[in-house]
Amino acid sequence: MAQSITSVELRRPPALSRAEVDALNARFETAHPTEIIEWAVDTFGTGLCLTTSFADTLLVNLSLAVDPDIEVVFLDTGFHFAETLDVMRRAMVRYEMNLRVERPGETAADLWTNGTDACCAARKVAPLERALAGRTAWLSGLRRDDSAGRADSSIVSIDRRGLVKVNPMAAWNPDDLAAYMTENDIISNPLLADGYESVGCWPCTERPDAGARSGRWTGTTKTECGIHL
Ligand code: SF4
Predict the structure, then answer these.
(1) Taking the model in full, what pTM does it have?
(2) Which CATH architecture fits 7-193?
(3) What is the distance between the terminal CA atoms of the chain, rounded to a whole angstrom?
(4) What residues does each domain of the chain span?
(5) For site-directed labelling of 127, which of 69, 72, 118, 227 has its Cα 20 to 30 A away?
(6) Which ligand 1 atom sits nearest the alpha carbon of residue 124?
(7) What is the pLDDT of residues 56-93, one digit of tens each?
């Protein structure tokens, strides 16, 4: 997914030049996610955090093995499946996570009265902005095989804020990923085993029998909530 830099939204000059980003993407295309995370931790230190949707604990497991103190950000929209919150609780038991849960305000827009774009803006995008304030870089679990719209996602990019966004698993071979999950007993949302393509907020996640398109927002052209744009 091409990620443009919108100059009016940049917080600061990016920590990497375009040439450096290109070189890193070439270097990391066949690298193990651990190598990419090690580079990110060494380069950005406490300026780095990770975000997770708790569809599984893959990125958490990989990242805490490199840096146990890295901040783990979860955006609690108020509309998560009970199964997703249970993955978070199980992860809290297994890992000594430096967990930060960002929640929307009580009067945040919601999809029922304000529509999905306003709801995602209030419940996902704005909380992520708060979590990324003061950061230089962030890790995301985005993968190219998540959806057609993510098929050309970069491993390293500069996001619209001017932050370095690192997707360590973007190019990970699915077979290697599956093997890692088994070997490391990665916690996974049981809804995925039940046939869900992806797991987001319960009102907007396609049921397995819906004829999956992107896995979300059935009957609309919307494919992203905004946090990865
Ligand atoms: S995915 Fe749906 S419920 Fe969740 S924040 Fe977006 S519109 Fe709201």
Answers:
(1) 0.89
(2) 3-Layer(aba) Sandwich (3.40)
(3) 9
(4) 7-193
(5) 69
(6) 5
(7) 999 999 999 999 999 999 999 999 999 999 999 999 99
